[in-house]
Specification:
Four Helix Bundle (Hemerythrin (Met), subunit A); 5 helices; binds zinc ion
Length: 200
């Protein structure tokens, strides 16, 4: 399975060494699967947890692996599009390498890529973000975050006198991750839930 390896700072193919399913007496849909894996590149141990979920064909299957060990400072959701995953990985690499201004610039670039993938193309990023909101892809709260990200990214990219503070860089990175996570994971999950309820 595909998981994030801290040591490699990348999404890697991990070999499953052993798995354990915790069966819940009250509801089998709440069963949990824990898999101990080994990074195929550096052999680091990785423990992941999976919940039961509906897949795209409405069949039950184990959901997206969530890393339990090592503890996650940042989590890249494996279901987000590859181009954004690569962008986000680079944002995290910048942050871990104490390159905070570069983190802000990379986050802005990732946000720009997100707008493009979602078909929100304006004459500048401010317009594109507004379009994301108008198209119902992000809500008001995420719009505010995205717009702050844009401003911080602008400042980082164009103002040589302004060094980005580590805490600000961490916030910018957290917001970028949250926007993508919300759009690709929670919204997707919620849309599936609504569809199921409609069919009942
Ligand atoms: Zn590794």
């Amino acid at each position: 399975m595909l998981v994030e390896c801290d040591n490699c700072s990348a999404l890697v193919e991990a070999q499953v060494i052993g798995a354990y399913v915790q069966e819940m007496e009250y509801d089998w849909m709440c069963n949990l699967k824990l898999s101990l894996c080994k990074c195929s590149q550096c052999a680091s141990p990785i423990l992941v947890e999976q919940e039961y979920e509906f897949d795209h064909e409405e069949n039950f299957d184990w959901g997206i692996p969530k890393r339990i060990y090592p503890g996650n400072l940042f989590h890249i959701n494996p279901i987000i599009p590859d181009k954004l995953k690569i962008g986000l990985t680079e944002c995290i690499k910048c942050f871990k390498g104490n390159a905070y201004t570069a983190t802000a610039i990379m986050c802005r670039r990732t946000l720009e890529g997100f707008c493009l993938i979602k078909g929100a193309k304006g004459k500048n990023l401010a317009v594109s973000i507004k379009k994301l909101k108008e198209d119902g892809i992000i809500n008001d709260q995420l719009y505010d975050w995205a717009d702050e990200l844009r401003l911080a990214g602008n400042e980082a990219a164009h103002n040589i006198d302004n060094d980005i503070d580590p805490l600000v860089a961490k916030d910018i990175l957290d917001f970028t991750i949250a926007i993508l996570d919300f759009t690709y994971s929670f919204k997707d999950k919620f849309d599936k839930f609504k569809n199921r309820e409609k069919k009942k």
